[in-house]
Structures are given as structure tokens and as C-alpha cells.
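Q: Hi! Curious about what Cellulase family glycosylhydrolase looks like structurally. Here's the sequence.
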Amino acid sequence: MTRIGTLLALASALALAGCAPVAAPSGPPASAIQAPAGSPVARHGALHVADGRVADSHGQPVTLRGMSLFWSQWAPQYYNAQTVAWLASDWKVSAVRAAIAAEGQDSALTHMDREIAKAATVIDAAVAQGIYVIVDWHAHRQHPAEAERFLAELARRYGHLPNVIWEPFNEPLRDNVDWSRDVKPYHERMVATIRAHDPDNLIVLGSPSWSQDVDMAARDPVPGDNLVYTLHYYAATHKAELRAKADAALAAGLALMITEYGVVEATGNGPVDLASSQEWWDWAERNGVSYLAWSIGDRNETSAALQPGAPTWGWGDGQLTPAGRLMRAHLRRAAGLPR
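A: Let's find out. The predicted structure is below.
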């Protein structure tokens, strides 16, 4: 189907479904929706960790490719069914990440129910599309009581579904933060909270230095099944040295997932680094490591995929940034489609 045909078909489907721009989609609950035939979840089912790799329900290795939404309090317009449906149909993502803001003004720390509702909307939309969804408690510092409330509520609602992947700590900071002393005990507490409602879906664990010290985590891993460790990178800043740390973690038996990467600098700005981006994509594919890009948002920075003021779906090339055009083209190529 041509891109125009895809847009028209999606518009028709969304109109028939009666989806509103930011409201949760109407219709049956997520638990009653069958994964669409041929969708990633229909093909792979529930994911688990086996021999240091993420594998599907058939025991075969799985590499998810997708996009992360921007901080939920600053780009709420993209936390809706249309955005997720467009990413699945046009960008060919197999996973999306709901980056639920747990810090900053107007975050889940002060508006918990509202932010839980945003996460639920994205989960419901991902289930309807048959793709996976990472539920990210998007914080740089520990807020254990609030995190427990957030994770317990959503795990209670959605923990029985194969689509859901949990990420209880986006990016622990570097200074005065120790993996074994500070971060590991936090993860143990969050894993227990999630497992009280969801016994087996993947849980992705962050490490110090903005989720780059995976080699430290490998020396003292969190006990439990189906635990994965996230690795974050920005291609223009992080190169062979960070891949060497990741290689060490993989060699030690840690399962990795890149829940956030950028094709620019770690500041979120600067020019696109195509050569380094390709090196990272090649590394991830070679090692069977899933990867999701930052971000679906219209912020005025070069890591954003969308131009300021872009609508919630149906983006043409003129509404994408250079990073957005690059990431969309890569995802479509990885799915075996023309740009």
C-alpha cells in the first residue's frame, strides 16, 4: 500500500472507531482484544529471557525496533491511539515506549492518576495494534513510593498481557550513585512490586551513568527471571567505548535492550551522526538487542522526530526532522519495505 493509501485507510479506521485525540480508545478492554494476524505480538507472543537473550514464546531470539514517546507531561498530545497506530502502520515499529514523566513540573509525582491514564491509553493502543509497549517510569532519581504506586496499578490492570514490558527506572544518575548500594536495592523492590501482579513479563533495569554502566550490573545482577538491562546511547557522543562495556555485559550473560537511543549528541541537539548511528544499528542487529529511538515529540531539538506543531499522526516528510526521516527510513528498511 502506498503511503497515501495507508494514511487514508488509517484515517477511515480511526474514524469508525471514534478515537479522540488524547482520550483512551473506545471499544472492548485491552484484555479482550486478540492481537491482529501477522502483528509482532501475534507472531512472537510472550517474551522471556533465555541464555542471555530475549526470546519469544517459540524459543526464538527477538529483536524489537521502535520509538519512544517524549516526556509525557511535555508532549501529551502524542499519548493517543492515532500516534501509536501510525507508528505501527507507517513506521513499522514493533514496540513503543511510554515515557511517563516522574520528575519535573507537572509530572506523575503530583498528577499520578492523570499520568497513569496516559500510560493506559498507550498500552491499550499498542494492544490494539499487536505491538509491544515499554511502560517507562521516566526518572533520574529514586521515588520508590510513587514508583510502586504507578507500577502496581498498571501491573494489576495489564500484567496478564504479553504486550507489556516494564521499565521502573529510566536513567539513574552518575555522581554519588553506586549500583550495588543504591540502584540494585531499588530494582529489587520494584521487581517484587511488579511480580506481585505480573509473574513473567520482561522487566528492564537501568544502571548508573544514565543507564550505561551495564558492565557494573553484570558483576552483581538482580536475582530473578526475565530481567533485562537497558543500555542508553546517543550516537554522536557514545561510540566504541560504550559498545565495549555492552559487550562485556553480554559476555557475562546479561540480556540487554536499548530502550532509548538518539542519532545526535547526548544533549539532544547537534547534527545527526549517520555513520555512528549505522554502527550502533549494526551492533544491535548482530547481537539481537532490541532498540527504540528518542523521541516522538515536537520539541525544538534535533533528537526530536517531529517538527514543532506536527499533528498527532499522518506525518509527511515536511513534518519530520532530519532525525525523524532517518529513523523512519531505518525502521521501514528493517521491516523489509522501501523508504
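A: A fun detail: The longest strand covers residues 227-234.
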